[in-house]
Specification:
mainly beta, Immunoglobulin-like, Outer Surface Protein A, domain 3, five-stranded antiparallel beta sheet, about 45% strand, elongated
Length: about 375
């Protein structure tokens, strides 16, 4: 009997008996069985933390048959079971530096390391290897392990109940962000464990802990300012390109925006010394446009301006919420133009405070101010 005939006979037998062939076997699904931070955590589905009520409502509105589902994404320090393998990504570090002069990243790259713990929860021995792990960034680029950080993860076999722990090193793009570790212990099966690591996420919590999503071809930069603050930004050929964040001397964020070819473009935000939002607006090719909002340090609204072309409409309020002034404003100088109406804190019409820079060139009236004509 030829080999092809034997294969046909076996497949026919599976069909007659109502069994699935090997290629149709459903892959085993990973599940959370605990956490290094909360070891008593009960088994749960990692991607669905909706309340029972909300979940029921959503499921009633959603099709239940043939609904596509993505693979579950786990977090660092969760204990994840897949068959006899129990994996925990203990921690991660973006920008790790090796003391070995022969283990250095190429220009434009850096090292990201993960520390993993693998346990054999089965009966039979299991093989392990660092090449069962790959790393993928938000843009879809995939990285393979290389080099080593002691104690390294390595390779070998685990007997029942035994565990192995160590580091795995990946060389990644400096501009890459939001990484996922993919662990596939058996390349014949499709089952995987996917863990989103904390290292490499886009964060800007302080001047010294600020990682921006710099565009490809730019270099992340940071510099201190005379007032004790600082700036984090991306640069290309001496020109600002990409996200920009500035810091006050007290450590609070001062402002943030985005630059395109050296000019602010997109939304921008300024902050008070206490961290409350002070101003929010939008730039387009270096020019202010659209609506701009202002707030007091208390968080209460102070004013808003909406620009159309070279002019805009301005309204301001007292901290009590009572309207303070209303009129037209010039975009170029941010000063009032034409007639302005003003009110006192009791809500009665009153002269505007022309001592404020906003009213430069204006003359006081009994109900507001007469300002230079709008253009």
């Amino acid at each position: 009997m030829r080999l092809g005939t034997i294969q046909i006979f076996i497949l026919s037998a599976f069909t007659v008996l109502g069994c699935k062939g090997p290629s149709q076997e459903e892959p085993e699904q990973p599940k959370v069985v605990g956490s290094l931070d909360e070891p008593e955590v009960a088994e749960k589905t990692p991607t669905d933390d909706r309340s029972t009520e909300s979940k029921t409502i959503l499921e009633e509105k959603s099709p239940k048959k043939d609904e596509p589902k993505g693979p579950p994404i786990f977090e660092e320090r969760q204990m994840i079971q897949l068959g006899e393998h129990q994996l925990t990504v203990v921690g991660s570090e973006f920008g790790w530096q090796s003391d070995n002069q022969f283990q250095q990243p190429k220009a434009g790259n850096t090292f990201l390391t993960i520390e993993v713990l693998l346990e054999n929860k089965g009966v039979d021995p299991i093989a392990y290897n660092q090449f069962d792990f790959t790393l993928q960034d938000a843009d879809g680029y995939t990285y393979r392990p290389e080099g080593g950080r002691k104690p390294n993860f390595g390779s070998g076999h685990l007997q029942q109940g035994r565990k192995v722990r160590g580091h795995i090193v990946f060389e990644v793009l400096e501009t890459a962000h939001t990484f996922e570790v993919i662990f596939q212990p058996n390349w014949i099966r499709a089952a995987q464990i996917i863990v989103q690591v904390r290292a490499g996420r886009l964060v800007c919590e302080s001047f010294d802990n600020c990682r921006l999503a710099c565009p490809q071809g730019t270099t992340p930069q940071k510099k201190t300012t005379k007032d004790g603050g600082g700036e984090n930004y991306c640069e290309k050929g001496g020109s600002l390109q990409g996200p920009y964040v500035s810091w006050q001397g007290n450590g609070q964020k001062e402002g943030e925006t985005t630059f395109v070819d050296g000019k602010p473009h997109g939304s921008f935000i300024l902050y008070h010394e206490n961290g409350q939002k002070k101003l929010e607006g939008e730039f387009r090719n270096g020019e202010r446009t659209g609506k701009m909002m202002l707030w007091y340090e208390s968080g209460k609204k102070q004013g808003e301006m909406e620009f159309q072309g070279e002019e805009g409409q301005s309204v301001t309020w007292y901290e009590s919420g009572q309207k303070k002034a209303e009129g037209r404003v010039l975009l170029e100088t941010s000063t009032g133009c034409d007639a302005f109406k003003c009110w006192d804190e009791a809500g009665q019409p009153s002269p505007c405070n022309i001592e404020e820079p906003f009213y430069e060139g204006c003359k006081r009236t009994s109900t507001g101010a007469d300002c230079p004509p709008c253009r």
